[in-house]
Design brief:
It is a single chain. The protein has 294 residues and is of the alpha/beta class. It has a single domain, classed as Spore Coat Polysaccharide Biosynthesis Protein SpsA, Chain A (Alpha-Beta Complex). It is 26% helix and 20% strand. A 7-stranded mixed beta sheet has the order 3-2-1-4-9-8-10. A two-stranded antiparallel ribbon has the order 5-11. The protein is globular and about 50 Å long. The N and C termini lie far apart (39 Å).
Length: 294
Amino acid sequence: MKKILVIATGWHFSSQFYTYMPRQKVPEGYQIDYFCVAHRPPEHQDTISEKQHLRNETSNDNVRKLEQIMYEVPITRGQIEVLGWTFMEEPNTIGDMECFNQWAESYDYSEYDFVLITHDDNFILSDELFVDIVENNIITYKPILETRSGHQFQVEKVNLDDDWYFIDNGYAQHIPKAFEPRGSFSLYKKELIDMLPNNRFDMYQDGGLGVVTRVGETNSVGHQGISAWNTHAGTFREFLYNGNLVEKTRYFSLTKRVSKYCIEGERGFISNALADGGTYLNDLSNRIQELKWL
């Protein structure tokens, strides 16, 4: 039996995410294990109050409607566990791939063929993620190594065979740091984790910004409050460069943060666009037009 691991960082607690993510179709011969590595309780007043305004308002804006679906009801730890997640609460040291490092203190990653590391402010759009990866030979996008200019690459369409180590959700060549994993909805093959120093992600290079830990904190501080955490996307990018893994990288779409599978949130909201600006918002608007329930 082959195994897939899903690790979600528990912070925003979108009920839509925790309900729909474990409904993924299971590829034949596979088992999927779901873990929530939480950095604050879903029942905490800070967790609930930060999204309460969405529950109190009526809106005709389609983006806001999606966010209202995400946080329609406050979800509890018990409900998350009933939906199929193993719940772990860990210190709020840092975001992104740190949840894998914390999970790996108690479990063995080598039991799994690949892992999805995801934030819990993503809007899930499809239940075909894993069958598409394993069975359906889908079209993905591969950086063309010889076209590199800074952190930008041209890409080519390729069928997703087994020759990948890292898959990110969406790519946008126009962004100066186009080749920089967001860490919001990304897949890592076991063989890639085997290559990491101590089989852990390096989350503590400060990049001149200073290491920020929020152990014991339960309130959200927005984009700037934890901007230092973005440094570690660059650390992982350099690992891909140094390991000659650019050609082992794939993308599901050519729209940053938006694919067939999910819309990635930013600091809790899919409407936030500090990092990606108007292009992302336009792509998001186009995708929303395809959603049948709005």
